[in-house]
Design brief:
12% strand, TPR_rpt, globular, 194 residues, 7 helices, three-stranded mixed sheet, TPR-like_helical_dom_sf, Tpr repeat containing exported protein, CpoB_C
Length: 194
């Protein structure tokens, strides 16, 4: 039995341009504030998109907590990171590190700051931060993963030999690291032909 064409299922036929089926609006915190479903889909216009942030400015920057609670700032930044908003995550983790340098979560915040830079393709900055974090917090619970991400950033910067040397150090320095991290290191060493 053949699968019906997209046109017979209500979608565009092969060769037709994509269509907008509806739109979703979000507030500055990323919450859905309204949605519409078009009964008659409209062709997608070049440069247009179906996702918008609400409010006066469509390019609204994500807001961070203004209270004096390091945990709320950390959690907000972490949520931005998990949602893929690396710029907002970067801002939050930078603010956490700046405002709360003695907080027990600062090592974690620095690791995630490096991740947010890595996620933006800013590999040299990420590598520098991972190096500094490794130096300052060599025994943190994220230290093996931090070192792994340093190797990944170095690999992205075409520093193959240094990346491989970094990967090789992880099981030696952290033999009791989580098995998942050690497997990722082994997989990356194999992939990179170290």
């Amino acid at each position: 039995m053949a699968i019906g064409s997209a046109a017979s299922q209500g979608g565009p036929a092969r060769g037709e341009p994509p269509q907008t089926l509806g739109s979703i609006r979000f507030d500055t915190n990323g919450n859905v504030i309204g949605e519409t479903l078009n009964a008659t889909p409209q062709p997608v216009q070049q440069g247009g998109g179906g996702i918008q942030t609400g409010g006066a400015a469509n390019d609204a920057v994500a807001s961070l907590p203004t209270d004096d609670n390091p945990n709320s700032l950390y959690q907000a930044a972490y949520q931005y990171l998990m949602s893929g908003d690396y710029k907002a995550a970067e801002a939050g983790f930078r603010e956490h590190v700046k405002r709360y340098p003695a907080d027990p979560m600062t090592a974690e915040a620095r690791f995630w700051l490096g991740e947010s830079l890595y996620g933006q393709g800013r590999y040299p900055e990420a590598a520098t931060l991972f190096i500094d974090t490794q130096r300052d917090y060599p025994d943190s619970k994220r230290a093996p993963e931090n070192m792994f991400k340093l190797g990944m950033a170095l690999e992205k910067m075409d520093n193959h030999d240094v990346a491989c040397a970094t990967f090789a150090q992880i099981p030696q320095r952290y033999p009791k690291a989580a098995p998942a991290i050690l497997k990722r290191v082994a997989d990356e060493r194999s992939r990179a032909k170290c």
